[in-house]
Amino acid sequence: MTDYETISPTAFGRVLRAMGMNLLCRDVRGMAAFLSEVFGLRVYRLSSDFAIIEHDGMILQLHSDGTFGAHPLLGLVPESAPRGGGAQIYLFGIDPDEAVARANPVMVLEAPRDKPHGLREATILSPEGYAFSPARAL
Q1: Domain harbouring 60, CATH code
Q2: Which helix (DSSP H) or strand (DSSP E) does residue 53 occupy?
Q3: What is the pLDDT of residue 32?
Q4: Mean model confidence pLDDT for the chain
Q5: Residue 2 falls within a domain, yes or no?
Q6: Cβ atoms 59, 52 nearer than 8 A
Q7: Is 1 a domain residue?
Q8: Helices (H) and strands (E) in the chain, counts
Q9: What is the tens place of the pLDDT at every residue in 5-15?
């Protein structure tokens, strides 16, 4: 098991596999708190600039805008929310009814419901404007 609290950046880069996701955030700490409090995701290496988020063995990274100062992607990110328009981030295995109960009601875009594709899911907007959908199999 990887110790995400103490791993060096170089070693961390070597353990990443398959597909990764990085979200640029104005407030890394706030976004990490949202992911932990609403969805129960594990947070590692939390700082104002960076966090490692883990869900069921999958890794999500949060970076502050300032860490992307020289990256061309930063120029495409809108200054005001929503930042993640058009993207839906599924969190499989998380009960949507429980997540919605913990979320700010104003941020719930779609209440939990059973879908024809065999999932019960909801959609909750993060403080940064990203759409997260907790979902579980029916």
Answers
A1: 3.10.180.10
A2: strand 50-55
A3: 98
A4: 90
A5: no
A6: yes
A7: no
A8: 3, 8
A9: 999 989 998 88
Q: Specify if 3 maps to a domain.
A: no
Nearest to 23 by CA among 133, 121, 126, 108: 126
Q: What is the pLDDT of residue 129?
A: 87
Contact 87, 78 (CB under 8 A): no
- Segment 74-118, tens digit of pLDDT: 777 777 667 777 688 999 999 999 999 999 999 999 999 999 889
Count of domains in the chain? 1
Q: Which residue has the tokens 């020289």?
A: 70
**Is the distance from CB of 38 to CB of 99 less than 8 angstroms?**
yes
Return d(Cα 103, Cα 107) in angstroms, integer: 7
For residue 16, what are the domain limits?
Answer: 9-137
- Report if residue 4 sits inside a domain: no
